[in-house]
């Protein structure tokens, strides 16, 4: 696998995407860079984005931090422009990974909760792909990929997450449409990676106090643990592997689906869940 990936990395020249400054995104950036790819690290948290890029560059890789707010159209234009410049005029891979949860039960869901999750998890990935279209709708014989991160909530639904579930389900439909539109003429592959319980701040104990700031308001993230098993195998009885996944394992699946080893896979949804929901 490594030999083929290293050979292919020279062809990639510039895999790039919404590679966050932490969690799965940071691991994606690290793993792609390890295979010789040039990566863009995009995150609203500038210090974290820069720290990831500096780590990669310090280890001999090639990375550029382009921090900013994905909800701003001007930032998306800047992101694509800098990505293309960093890649020598080309973009080969987009990884749509940015996001968080803003939970609420159906009858208490606010417009703000709904609109933000739809914008962040569905509209922004589309807007980025639309902005980057000139770099994908080309016939130079080089492989190109769009990998969008979904969730088991988008496939099976999840109580308290109707906004997030709807947006993540939309990602699956978007992926299939890209595969059907850009596959025939341009050879673009598009796939979705749907993750289950991966150990990140989104699945840590909500009581730990992690949050994101939305228009000056702190939005608590994580999973409430009051009255639930504290850890060990009993906490994951619905997962056949009896444990959560790591950010590295999730990022490895993303790398695998974007690699030449998956060159005939397009329009599919890969569930990275440890066997949950089978």
UniProtKB/TrEMBL annotation:
This is 3-oxoacyl-[acyl-carrier-protein] reductase. One of its GO terms (biological process) is monocarboxylic acid metabolic process. InterPro entries: NAD(P)-bd_dom_sf, Sc_DH/Rdtase_CS, SDR, SDR_fam. SUPFAM superfamilies: NAD(P)-binding Rossmann-fold domains. The lineage of its organism: Eukaryota, Fungi, Dikarya, Ascomycota, Pezizomycotina. Gene3D superfamilies: NAD(P)-binding Rossmann-like Domain. Its EC number is 1.1.1.100. It holds the Pfam family adh_short. It comes from the Eukaryota. GO terms for molecular function: 3-oxoacyl-[acyl-carrier-protein] reductase (NADPH) activity. Keywords: NADP. It comes from Schizothecium vesticola. Belongs to the short-chain dehydrogenases/reductases (SDR) family. It is an enzyme of class 1 (oxidoreductase). The keyword NADP applies. It catalyses: a (3R)-hydroxyacyl-[ACP] + NADP(+) = a 3-oxoacyl-[ACP] + NADPH + H(+).
């Amino acid at each position: 696998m490594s030999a083929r990936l290293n050979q292919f990395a020279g062809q990639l020249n510039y895999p790039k995407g919404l590679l966050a400054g932490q969690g799965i995104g940071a691991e994606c950036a690290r793993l792609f860079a390890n295979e010789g790819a040039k990566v863009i690290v995009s995150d609203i948290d500038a210090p974290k984005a820069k720290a990831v890029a500096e780590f990669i560059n310090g280890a001999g890789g090639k990375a550029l931090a382009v921090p900013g707010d994905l909800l701003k159209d001007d930032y998306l234009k800047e992101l694509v422009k800098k990505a293309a410049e960093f890649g020598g005029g080309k973009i080969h891979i987009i990884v749509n990974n940015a996001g968080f949860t803003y939970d609420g039960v159906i009858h208490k869901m606010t417009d703000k909760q709904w609109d933000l999750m739809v914008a962040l998890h569905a509209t922004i990935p589309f807007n980025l792909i639309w902005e980057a279209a000139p770099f994908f709708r080309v016939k130079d014989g080089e492989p190109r990929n769009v990998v969008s991160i979904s969730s088991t909530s988008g496939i099976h639904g999840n109580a308290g997450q109707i906004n997030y579930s709807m947006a993540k389900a939309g990602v699956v439909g978007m992926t299939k449409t890209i595969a059907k539109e850009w596959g025939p003429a341009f050879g673009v592959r598009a796939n979705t990676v749907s993750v289950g319980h991966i150990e990140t701040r989104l699945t840590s104990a909500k009581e730990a106090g992690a949050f994101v700031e939305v228009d000056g308001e702190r939005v608590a993230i994580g999973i409430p643990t009051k009255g639930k098993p504290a850890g060990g195998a009993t906490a994951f009885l619905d997962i056949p592997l009896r444990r959560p996944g790591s950010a590295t394992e999730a990022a490895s699946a993303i790398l695998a689906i974007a690699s030449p080893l998956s060159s005939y896979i397009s329009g599919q949804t890969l569930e990275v869940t440890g066997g949950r929901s089978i």
